[in-house]
Amino acid sequence: MKHITIILLAWLSITNQTSQGLYVCKNAHISLYSSAPIEDIKAATNTATSVFNASTGDLAFNIAINSFHFEKELMQEHFNSDYMESDKFPRATFKGKVQEHPDLTKDGSFPVTATGDLTVHGVTQKRTIPGTLTVKNGVITLTSEFMVKCADHHISIPQIVFHNIAENIKMNVSATYSPYKSN
After folding, report:
1. CA 155, CA 146: separation in Å to the nearest integer?
2. pLDDT tens digits, residue range 32-55?
3. Residue 58 near residue 84, CB atoms below 8 Å
């Protein structure tokens, strides 16, 4: 986990050599939800990492696919082996840029959009994802809700379970950032 954060920080430092305006989240909450006629599917992880450079708008997320936890163990097993193939594609990532530059020294909620590359199941797609940056007492939180279409990332849903899994998966993201302090 630590090496993933270091890689994210290195990527962001290429665009800005100073750590001023650099924020890190080591426990971002990511949840997924699939509504289907037979059974809803829900899973979440609290171990995603993210780096946000407020000076440049650069934003990166890294999620270990097998860190998602399901209510039913069998669902988790099928998710990792049959659909996401987490042995072959262990991570999902987003690398992009927040388009707006709100004043993060003032409390408030600011609508933002992040444009960049979302990589899931080894397939990268250009995406523009809406979100909200909230500042409260100097603490920065980024939240977002968006849809991921399974077919866009070559995630196959066998015909036999087609009614169990939706073609579009709702994703919710919440990351609370701390200023980056180099050691």
Report:
1. 17
2. 998 877 778 899 999 999 999 999
3. no
**Through-space distance between the first and last CA atoms of the chain, rounded to whole angstroms:** 17
* E strand or H helix at 6: helix 2-15
Phi, psi of 141 (to 5 degrees): -125, 135
In sequence order, which ranges of 56-178 are alpha helices (DSSP H)?
Answer: 73-78
Tokens of residue 155, six digits = 């995630």
Helices (H), 63-143: 73-78
CATH topology of domain 2-9+23-104+114-179: Lipocalin (2.40.128)
| CA-based nearest residue to 59, from 25, 31, 105 | 25
Q: Which residues pair with 167 in a beta bridge?
A: none
